[in-house]
Amino acid sequence: xxxxxxxxxxxxxxxxxxxxxxxxxxxxxxxxxxxxxxxxxxxxxxxxxxxxxxxxxxxxxxxxxxxxxxxxxxxxxxxxxxxxxxxxxxxxxxxxxxxxxxxxxxxxxxxxxxxxxxxxxxxxxxxxxxxxxxxxxxxxxxxxxxxxxxxxxxxxxxxxxxxxxxx
Length: 167
Known about the structure:
single chain, alpha/beta, globular
């Protein structure tokens, strides 16, 4: 039987986020209204006092304030083995850095899988924590982001040293 999912909300400079976890780790961190997320499922339990959700909220708040560059949370996102591999590779992209879809595909040993990398990235359930906003198109082109290109641009600008301003 799958473990229960608990959720809470976090107000951020870029809109409210829904945070979700299970007994094994963080399952999601989504911006309200982003693609591929329709809100908490009916069987999820709201728990604003859940220790892991509180820790995730603290780390995200610190990140938005510029006091944190990496996250130290147990992660348990649902996804296919390929999606899991893509998300693990995305997690290796350092703060303030970017990589292309092709570079991630090559790192996975599948250099022709750029489109599949893009599809898996679009389903990343852990916005910011797994930094899919750091993935760009060939030549640095700003392409695809489930949270919207304006938000992606804002996140990349913020990580380059600018102040965080809402899109």
